[in-house]
Amino acid sequence: MIKDGTRVINKKGLLYVAEEGDKQSPVKFKPWLGDSFSALYDFLMKRFVFPRQLDADQDRHYEILGNELKDVHNARVLELATGSGSVVRFLPTDNQYTGTDISPGLLRKAVKVLRRSGFQESACYVARAEDLPFADGCFDVLVCILALNFFCNADRAFEELARVGTAGAMFFGCVPVPERIQRGNAISGTLYSEHELAEICEANGFRFESIPHENGALLYFRAVLQQKASSKL
């Protein structure tokens, strides 16, 4: 599952990629909020991010995702930007789940939530979406919720998803888009329009399809991996 030449370090239930040339030291990242905010993350999402920034209903959000993913069973699932483990609210527990994030603090919360929720096969890696530690063709289902706007390079992230996904792998995403912002709210990160997201997906071998749900500034979409983008991979 781990790509050749990559060494992984297990530290208290989290999996870290080792520094090149130093098998004992993990690669470290600077989380966008910092690990000091990990304890407040869920509170901020519920009380501030969803209602004030996104103009969205959090319960409706998880209802939409649950309906979209309810038929995903016994699959190898990869999530980019796991956060504190909200995946337990919409993904069936019989899947083999792999989560990634650059925040060890959030991932430590996610590990506990996954265990409590009955995920028997789960692993969480401290890793960047643009440089995944996994071998080619490892995952059947790919997920990224409320995070694409925070990636340094969304195109590179989809290039990596195309590499680690199997042929026909399904991607499910949710992200704020500028054309759905109603009150001029300031949303952090780089916002891509639906058209731009479709272009990024299609440039990396995914067939893009928006999902017709209305929930504030959020766009829900799926994308099926058709083929490897030969010009990049």
What's the topology here?
Blueprint: E1 8-11, E2 14-19, E3 22-26, H1 41-53, H2 58-69, E4 76-80, E5 96-101, H3 104-116, E6 122-126, E7 139-145, H4 154-164, E8 165-176, H5 194-203, E9 206-215, E10 218-225
Parallel strand pairs: 2-6, 4-5, 4-7, 5-6, 7-8
Antiparallel strand pairs: 1-2, 2-3, 8-10, 9-10
Number of strands: 10
Query: Would you state the CATH class?
Result: Alpha Beta
Shape: globular
Count of folded domains: 1
What is Rg?
A: 17 Å
State the CATH architecture.
3-Layer(aba) Sandwich
For the largest beta-sheet, the strand count, sense and barrel status come to: 10 strands, mixed
**Order of helices and strands, N to C?**
EEEHHEEHEEHEHEE
Distance from first to last alpha carbon: 18 Å
Treating each run of at least 4 consecutive H or I residues as one helix, how many helices? 5
Might you state the CATH topology name? Rossmann fold
Task: Tell me the β content.
Answer: 25-35%
Low-pLDDT residue spans: none
- Residue share in helix: 25-40%
Structural class: alpha/beta
| The CATH homology group name | Vaccinia Virus protein VP39
What integer is the average pLDDT?
Answer: 93
Structure description:
The structure is a single chain. Strand 9 and strand 10 form a beta hairpin. The protein has a single domain, classed as Vaccinia Virus protein VP39 (Rossmann fold, 3-Layer(aba) Sandwich), CATH 3.40.50. Strands 1, 2, 3, 4, 5, 6, 7, 8, 9 and 10 form a ten-stranded mixed β-sheet that branches. It has 233 residues and is of the alpha/beta class. The mean pLDDT is 93. The chain is globular. It is built from five helices and ten strands; from the N terminus they run E-E-E-H-H-E-E-H-E-E-H-E-H-E-E.
